[in-house]
Design a protein that fits this description.
By secondary structure, the chain is α+β, with helices and mostly antiparallel strands. The protein has 3 domains: 109 residues, Alpha Horseshoe (Serine Threonine Protein Phosphatase 5, Tetratricopeptide repeat), CATH 1.25.40.10; 199 residues, Rossmann fold; 111 residues, no CATH class. Helices cover 30% and strands 24% of the residues. Strands 5-4-6-7-8-9 form a 6-stranded mixed beta sheet. β7 and β8 form a beta hairpin. The longest helix has 17 residues. It starts with 8 loop residues before the first strand and ends with a strand. 32% of the residues are buried.
């Protein structure tokens, strides 16, 4: 569903459009339709909670009404998706006895970072789990302390959760350590996560946030709901109030149509202008803003990139960065069995194992991996990296499959060149690339075969 509602307000700035300049004709308040940035392929979205883990030392200082941490987390997840429309099934599987599958850690490792969770190979889910996605939660930290030494100025709270969500088949979706800080009676919260899209979440959530409760239990639940929302919000569509600056004269057909609520007519007008004059950066920019309102961020990013090649103005640059931030988060998560072409490729590669080799390498800082979408580029690189096998007359080497190790220590799914390895994050100029572009600055492994 896409929505572009009528203008909610207009602040008009009647200024001329000079040569080489971009002058807003007005600041419009409109509603932007944001489709899910992470989409599940093949089946409806559903979430199962496999495990909520909290150390005994943490439970020892927890108020009695919060001791059922597992039930509270399950309720928070259910409440979040119910408030978002109730279309997502949430199932509590915590009674099935699923256990953390992280490898045993030495005492020295625990002392260095007691919060870390290094995950090994996916162990599979218990029988009876039917949801498309499954989540494991570890409560890392919960503190409630006086905001001032005299104890009269309320209390400050901190909740830290390690949340890891996977497909039922074992494809990682998101693993992140989320910290939520708050103070009793205040609207403001502070969220932190290296992996989560905090800025995008705050854009959605901050306008609707209420003051934090005064009691410890209420504060815990409020922070818990924020952490859950931050972890899952990319899976759902949203409507976002946004201030929109158009560029052009007030009497231009496109500007007039937009202000009258005829957004489709305005878009048609600006696209026609851009086609007639590819250097009409104002038309490119305005068209991109309308496309973004409709949830077509990838098209909007391309037009903003074209506008910037004509005039790299601060207004264009700011909007390009905002749209790029959303596009960089777009992903399609596979669910269900492997596709027929993936199975065929795997079977073909396994027929001649003697001529195939698996290599694990550190970040190579070779920028050639980031160039374009051509799957043939690895032939020259493999000949350079592995001359004994690949730099021989009549021999052609190609990567059969590969993985990238993300910064949280978890390996990606197995990518197959040309099938499932298109990166959702584009280059700075809006062009696309393959996931092996991360070979530049990530540890990686690949299986290559000589034919």
């Amino acid at each position: 569903m896409r929505r572009c509602r009528n203008l909610l307000g207009v602040l008009v700035l009647l200024l001329p459009l000079g040569a080489g300049a971009a002058v807003p004709s007005g600041v419009e308040e409109a509603t932007r339709w944001q489709p899910p940035l992470v989409q599940l392929e093949g089946q409806p979205l559903s979430v199962g909670l496999l495990l909520v883990h909290a150390d005994d030392s943490l439970l020892a200082v927890t108020p009695p009404d919060l001791l059922n941490v597992s039930g509270l987390v399950a309720r928070a997840i259910q409440d979040y998706f119910h408030a978002a429309g109730g279309q997502v099934q949430v199932v509590d599987y915590t009674e099935l006895g699923f256990q953390l599958w992280n490898r045993p850690r030495t005492k020295a490792e625990q002392e260095r970072d007691p919060r870390a969770l290094e995950l090994g190979p996916w162990p599979g889910v218990p029988l009876g789990v039917k949801t498309a996605l499954v989540t494991v939660v570890k409560v890392v930290r919960w503190e409630l302390v006086p905001a001032a030494p005299d104890g009269l100025a309320g209390e400050k709270a901190l909740l830290a959760l390690l949340m890891s969500t996977w497909t039922r088949e074992g494809q990682p979706v998101q693993t992140e350590l989320i910290e939520v800080h708050g103070a009793t009676g205040e609207h403001l919260l502070w969220l932190r996560s290296k992996q989560a899209a905090v800025a995008l979440y705050e854009e959605l959530r901050a306008p609707h946030r209420r003051p934090s409760p005064e009691d410890a239990s209420g504060m815990f639940l409020a922070l818990l709901h924020e952490a859950v929302g931050l972890h899952y919000f990319l899976l759902l569509p949203h409507e976002v109030r946004e201030r929109l600056e158009l560029v052009g004269r007030e009497d231009e057909p496109g500007v007039r149509a937009f202000r009258e609520g005829r957004h489709a007519d305005a878009l048609k007008e600006w696209l026609a202008r851009a086609e007639a004059d590819p250097k009409d950066h104002a038309a490119l920019y305005n068209a991109a803003r309308v496309l973004a309102l409709r949830g077509e961020d990838r098209r909007a990013l391309r037009l903003l990139g074209r506008a910037r090649t004509v005039e790299d103005l601060p207004l264009y640059r700011e909007q390009w960065q905002r749209v790029h931030q959303r596009v960089a988060r777009m992903r399609e998560i596979g669910a269900g069995k492997a596709r027929p072409e993936e199975r065929a490729r795997r079977e073909q590669a396994e027929r001649s194992p003697a001529r195939c080799h698996t290599v694990e390498r550190e970040a190579g800082r070779d920028p050639r991996w980031t160039y374009g979408l051509g799957v043939e580029l690895e032939e020259a690189l493999l000949a350079e990296y592995h001359p004994a096998e690949c730099d021989q007359p009549g021999v052609r080497c190609a990567i059969d499959s590969y993985q990238v190790r993300w910064n949280n220590g978890i390996w990606s799914i197995r990518y197959l060149p040309g099938l499932n390895d298109l990166d959702a994050k584009p280059q700075y100029d809006g062009t696309r690339r393959r996931m092996w572009s991360y070979f530049y600055d990530h540890t990686h492994r690949y299986r290559y075969c000589a034919r």
